[in-house]
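Item description
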Amino acid sequence: MSLPYASPAASALSAAPAVHLSAPRYVLGELPAAHTTVDGLAERARTFGMPPRAELWGWGTVHRTAKALETLAAETARATLDGAGTAPADVDCLILCSTRFPGGPRTHGAFVENVLAATGLGAAAFTGLTLGRCANLLAGIRTGQAYVASGMYRTVMVVTADRVTDEAVRMENFALFSDGAASCLISADPLGPDAYEIVAGAGAQDPAGLDWSNEISSDLAREVNRQILEEAGMKIGDIQGVLHPNLYKPLVVLKERQAGFTREQLFLDNIPRVGHCFAADPLINLVDREAAGELKPRGHYLLASSVPGVRIGVLLRKLPAPDAATGTEAATAPDAATAAETATDPATASETEGAAPTATASATASETEGAAPTATASATATARQGDH
């Protein structure tokens, strides 16, 4: 593999004011169904060399929608505005992300108009992001951060929305896809009770690896981690949780452990519950971990996404809920987990410091579910990860 190109880390913005991510929200397709309803699942699994073991891969529920893409985008955006207590008129830029905007140049204007009208954003400036595939949302968050830090815009709404248009490809050899959308606000000040400081962010790319049939690169993930941790002055064990894509369990565990994380830092619960909602997964997982009470005030959490040839990470620090009387951060005792972070797994450390581990997905699967898949399945399931 050629040396990765690393995009500027947060250090490029270090002299700028703090930037915050507020009111993350999401919507799923309104038609949940068991994975057994996926067209041709058994046949595709055989083609991919995957034994039909739902508990191993994390096959669970998929969420379909009959709604238009702009409807999903508007629903999550309105939820974010409500959660932040922010009026639509206070948002001066909208960043729309999707792996495939409907139609073409003749229809994209109406698409944007419909989203702006349905959310009340009126004449807000807009930007569209699509080439990052399932890393689009994090690219949008980093773009919004740069907009706010530079003073170009005060408050930026970031929205990602995607849906499967061909049921024959709802199952791929790396994930079961669900329809859905997610959103957040990026601004200089925290907005509402559910807010995070953006501590650092980085991206790394390997142009030679961008074809969707290539592997996810752990080299790129390690490079992104290096940049982020260096900027934040932290160690990898100081990150209390990784909000990664909801790909198949063995693939997620293998690739994120190769990136240097421990099994305990990962969040696999949403793989069977939600499925892979394209670029929305990191925010969906952040929202759900918060709802479950698993995020600690002042704890650090990494939004991360990988596609072939690209890795993007955004490190967040959860802000304590504001005091109702003063509107400032509530005083809380130092969090024990913040003072004494999870130690890096020695086995994992050896993966980051030296050669990449030789374990296949079959070895990783034993960490997740017990018995391992066949060698053929492991090679197939870990070898490819692309996006629609």
Summary: The mean pLDDT is 84. DSSP finds 13 helices and twelve strands in the chain. Residues 49 and 377 are 5 Å apart (CA to CA).
